[in-house]
Amino acid sequence: MPSQPSKQLETFENPDPGRDYSIQISVPEFTCLCPKTGQPDFATIELSYVPDQLCIELKSLKMYVWSFRDEGAFHEAVTNRILDDLVQACSPRFMRVKAEFNVRGGIYTTVVAEHKADDWRPPDPVTLP
Predict the structure, then answer these.
(1) Is the residue at 3 inside a domain?
(2) Is the pTM for the entire model greater than 0.85?
(3) 34 catalytic, yes or no?
(4) Would you call 90 a catalytic residue per the annotation?
(5) Nearest 5°: phi and psi at 90?
């Protein structure tokens, strides 16, 4: 197999670090295992962030997400771990990870975790007529 799962997240320099802008990434094929039953859990991970000096490289993100496929994890724990790992990799001004898990036993779970740099303030919203 030419590619392998990996916990190694790669980054690249932000092409415009002087501007606040958002990057939004959707990962519709996230899988991990239920730590109680061992059955697969499926989720869509929505990642939104305002980069500072670094951006997340997408191929490494794909390999990173793949690395959870055979791991048991509660929804809350895996969502917060993803946020922590991504923040550690790129130190964004702001980041939100939203994990929408598919139905299991008639229950849908959505977990949202956020990070905000201490010195960052969001811009004032603009309302156009």
Answers:
(1) no
(2) yes
(3) yes
(4) no
(5) -125, -5
The active-site residue, picked from 16, 20, 32, 34, is 34
Q: What is the pLDDT of residues 39-81, one digit of tens each?
A: 999 999 999 999 999 999 999 999 999 999 999 999 999 999 9
| CA distance readout (Å), 88 to 1, 34, 41, 83, 84 | 29, 26, 25, 8, 6
Q: How many domains does the chain have?
A: 1
CATH value at residue 94: 3.30.1130.10
From first CA to last CA, the distance across the chain in angstroms is 54
Annotated catalytic residue within 16, 20, 32, 41: 41
Token representation of residue 69: 């496929």
Question: DSSP 3-state assignment of 3?
Answer: coil
